[in-house]
């Protein structure tokens, strides 16, 4: 590993601290190095706050050292006015002589203009250090801007014999049927806190009456998106409480006869929602799989055996990451180009 890679890796570690509060902005990490020593660090603040470069520069106690320092950033510094002034201007103001950038920002508001501005001011610029890793650190942001849709995560739990739930009848109480252990369920609540929205179908709400919040994790609740074509869901359901914003999609909102997944993606794009975790039933999940509109699938396999019930979605894949959470197995499958 060379020096540039070493400090860009540190930038990526810092950038994790900015998610999800920085969204819809990307979360960037910045490191300032003088004579082989880190003298300043920063990551992107909550949306509307300082960018990573500003926080890193502000953290440097002796600003005179900036004249002989290098600033490392995981993503190209911005050159336009948004919620905050351009980061390029601050770098130029403090006459930092060298900037090492992990990845060019594909957002049309930046798209190389930041690099161009730095070079025009006689600053040495190195671009393209750990590009893949830098892109993955802001996969939601890049998917949103490059594919014009949110980053889509499919999530479900299934039994060893391939069922996601038992068959329901009218006499069944509205309560979830747990396939996974408590630690796995807490992890799901952590995931919810990391995404901007969560989506389920009508039957999931009718059967389980979920709150779709982060009640088992200290984090912000996602926006709740619910498919309810014929307005069957009771107004007494938990999704109508005031814990989080809820958007109901019915026959007045989208056309349920065609390309539901695409219509949902377009709607979330208009809402400026960059990521969604889909925890719906088998039918809802299969819709996104069949239309190949997904980026990750996170599948829990519990030790429960049902013998009959509602079949789990069918997803074909070659490779996946596997981990064990107590007695559950977690598969993470990626659908990257």
Compact description:
With 337 residues, the chain is an alpha/beta fold. The chain has helices at 3-15, 52-59, 87-93, 113-120, 131-137, 139-147, 182-194, 202-208, 260-270, 282-290; strands spanning 29-34, 37-43, 70-73, 98-101, 124-127, 151-158, 163-165, 197-200, 223-227, 246-249, 275-278, 296-301, 310-311, 321-325, 328-334.
Would you kindly provide a written description of the structure presented here, covering whatever features stand out?
The chain is of the alpha/beta class. The chain contains 10 helices and 15 strands. The protein has helices spanning 3-15, 52-59, 87-93, 113-120, 131-137, 139-147, 182-194, 202-208, 260-270, 282-290; strands spanning 29-34, 37-43, 70-73, 98-101, 124-127, 151-158, 163-165, 197-200, 223-227, 246-249, 275-278, 296-301, 310-311, 321-325, 328-334. Strands 10-9-8-11-6-12-15-14 form an 8-stranded mixed beta sheet, sandwiched between helices. A 5-stranded mixed beta sheet has the order 2-1-3-4-5, sandwiched between helices. Strand 14 and strand 15 (328-334) form a beta hairpin. Helix 3 (87-93) packs parallel to helix 4. The radius of gyration is 23 Å and the shape is elongated. The model has no long low-confidence stretch (mean pLDDT 91).
> How large a portion of the residues is in β-strands, by DSSP E?
15-25%
Strand ordering within the main sheet: 10-9-8-11-6-12-15-14
The averaged pLDDT comes out at: 91
Tell me the distance between the termini.
Answer: 26 Å
- Overall, the morphology is elongated
Rg to the nearest angstrom? 23 Å
């Amino acid at each position: 590993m060379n020096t540039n890679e070493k400090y860009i890796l540190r930038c990526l570690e810092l950038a994790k601290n900015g998610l999800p509060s920085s969204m819809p902005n990307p979360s960037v990490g910045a490191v300032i190095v003088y004579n082989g020593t880190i003298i300043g660090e920063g990551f992107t603040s909550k949306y509307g706050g300082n960018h990573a470069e500003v926080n890193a520069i502000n953290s440097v106690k002796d600003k005179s050292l900036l004249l002989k320092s290098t600033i490392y950033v995981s993503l190209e510094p911005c050159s336009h006015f948004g919620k905050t002034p351009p980061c390029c201007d601050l770098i130029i103001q403090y006459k930092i002589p060298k900037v090492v950038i992990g990845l060019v920002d594909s957002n049309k508001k930046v798209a190389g203009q930041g690099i161009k501005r730095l070079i025009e001011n006689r600053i040495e610029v190195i671009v393209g250090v750990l590009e893949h890793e830098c892109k993955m650190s802001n996969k939601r942001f890049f998917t949103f801007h490059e594919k014009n849709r949110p980053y889509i995560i499919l999530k479900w739990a299934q039994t060893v014999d391939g069922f996601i739930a038992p068959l329901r009848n009218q006499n069944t109480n509205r309560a979830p049927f747990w396939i996974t252990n408590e630690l796995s369920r807490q992890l799901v609540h952590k995931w919810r806190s990391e995404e901007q929205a969560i989506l389920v179908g009508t039957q999931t709400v009718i059967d389980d009456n979920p709150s779709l919040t982060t009640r088992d994790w200290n984090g912000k609740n996602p926006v709740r998106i619910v498919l309810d074509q014929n307005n069957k869901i009771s107004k007494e359901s938990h999704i109508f409480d005031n814990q989080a914003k809820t958007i109901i999609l019915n026959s007045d909102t989208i056309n349920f006869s065609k390309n539901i997944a695409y219509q949902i993606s377009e709607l979330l794009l208009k809402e400026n929602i960059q990521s969604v975790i889909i925890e719906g039933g088998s039918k809802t999940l299969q819709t996104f799989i069949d239309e190949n509109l997904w980026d990750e699938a996170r599948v829990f396999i519990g030790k429960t055996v049902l013998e009959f019930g509602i079949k789990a979605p069918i997803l074909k894949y070659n490779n996946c990451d596997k981990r064990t959470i107590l007695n559950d197995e977690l598969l993470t499958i990626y659908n990257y180009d």
